[in-house]
Amino acid sequence: MISEYSDNQLNDDATRSHILSIEHGLTEHSKCLKDWHRSLLCGLPINNVYLLKEGYLQCDFGKWYYNQTSRYLSNNEDFLLINKVHQDIHDITRVLALKSKLEDTITKEDYDVLSEKEQELTKLLLKLKDKLHENMSKLDFLTGVLTRQPFFQTLSHEHARALRKGEPSIIVLIDLDDMKAVNDTYGHLSGDKVLEKAARYLVNNLRKYDSICRYGGDEFLICVSQITLDAAKEIITRLQMGLSSLPIKLDEDVVVNITASVGAAVMATEHSINEIIARADEALYNAKSKGKNQISFWENKG
Predict the structure, then answer these.
(1) Residue 19 belongs to a domain
(2) Residue 217 belongs to some domain of the structure
(3) What's the pLDDT tens digit per position in 190-214?
(4) Among the four 6, 134, 177, 266, which has the fewest Cβ within 10 Å?
(5) Which whole number is the average pLDDT over 154-182?
(6) Residues 96 and 216 placed together within one structural domain of the fold
């Protein structure tokens, strides 16, 4: 299975995979309904799956839907709504199939209800697909994390929440050390692999309500949300130490380790987001100047 990175953030490959999966679901749904309509209109034997109370589990669409292992989809509201609509469709088709079998009259109202449910299911699937396309447009193509623009929208919401509730958050800049040496020694494709692995590590080890973007070439910007400075220091230290002990396999014979310099600043509500990031950047510069592989927190020197 393609790794999704986390419950609430998909990488690029997982997003593409889910889009293809939904397209497959739409195809299977259409095939099932076409088969049911053909049997009903042409007086053909009706597939037993349409006569069973739990037939929704056995149709091709149901096999796709109920065997999903994606954490992202299973937490998605539109995906969850599909369950009820799909079961309703099977309940209706079962009643109509039984009426046809007993040569009972199928009314216009019966068929209109089915038609409405079919349209509702299709709309949910297409809406979900559109959300995934939107998600893909916000992702950095290499690392699978957010790009700057959508991340700044997240920061704006976080800044407003901190202002409203008085709950602090921490802005963190992480710069991978000596990436030029990696690129010069092993090539840029290997450097890309290091960035992708580092991003995956960071996402997998953040809390689900924290957020991350690729800020620049070798830099990641993180918002550690709703947390005290002391608690944030523990998280940041754990992330930095974890990166330094992360073996990154470039090929069969080459495994490298990287370190990271970190700068952090409290999201002070009286300052703009850009000013807070500038403080984190100043702290990062301080960490670099101390010899790299360091953590520095911005301090008011005035």
Answers:
(1) yes
(2) yes
(3) 999 999 999 999 999 998 889 999 9
(4) 134
(5) 89
(6) no
Of 113, 137, 161, the residue that ends a domain is 137
Burial 231-265 (b: 16+ CB within 10 A, else e): ebbebbeebbeebeebebebeeeeebebbbbbbbb
Number of domains in the chain: 2
- List the beta bridge partners of residue 219: 175
| Whole-number CA gyration radius for the chain | 26
Percent share of the chain, pLDDT over 90 = 44
Look at residue 115 and tell me if it is in a domain.
Answer: yes
Domain that holds residue 95: 12-137
Q: Are residues 279 and 192 in the same domain?
A: yes
* Numbers of helices and strands, H then E, in the chain: 10, 7
User: Would you say 224 and 232 are in contact if contact means Cβ atoms under 8 Å apart?
Assistant: yes
Mean pLDDT calculated for residue range 284-292? 94
User: Which domain-ending residue is among 117, 137, 157?
Assistant: 137
Q: Please choose, from the candidates 245, 227, 230, the residue with its C-alpha nearest in 3D space to the C-alpha of residue 293.
A: 245
Mean pLDDT, rounded, of the chain: 87
| CA dist., res. 212 & res. 198, Å (int) | 12
- Of 127, 212, 228, which is closest to residue 168 (Cα–Cα)? 228
Confidence of residue 2 (pLDDT cuts 50, 70, 90): very low
Q: Are 153 and 259 contained in the same domain?
A: yes
Task: Report the CATH number at residue 253.
Answer: 3.30.70.270
Band (pLDDT 50/70/90 cuts) for residue 1 is very low
In a domain, 226, yes or no: yes
Which value, to the nearest 10 degrees, does the dihedral of the CA atoms of residues 100, 101, 104, 105 take? 0
End-to-end CA distance of the chain: 53
